[in-house]
Amino acid sequence: MSRRVFVSLALVVALLVSMSVAAPLGADGLPGELVQPAVFGVDLTGDESTRLVFVELELPPMVAEAGGTTLAALETEQASFLTQAARAGLQIQERYRYSRLFNGFSLEVRGSDLQALAKLPGVKAVWP
Question: Which of the four, 55, 98, 114, 128, has the lowest number of CB atoms within 10 Å?
């Protein structure tokens, strides 16, 4: 195989791999936006079944390139998120809470609540 063909194949493989990296998806299906119910492949409006999701909050985690965020600040943001979710009437079940490498939660939530969850103040992304 010639060097030129090898380099071309390597570039194609690199492009395919970079396209497969997980990212939150928006209503338009493009990475970088908050997740909307349609991301799960169906319209989840009125869906009472529960889904497992990760909710990423705005503040960077404790271990971040630029020094991170204090645990107290993360706890305040996480408590605020839970309060906002309760006020919005969202039925969520907290599974895990993260602050060191990821700032957010693993939650069990009704499919019909996903859109409202993604719009809460302080929510950076919702990951399926």
Answer: 128
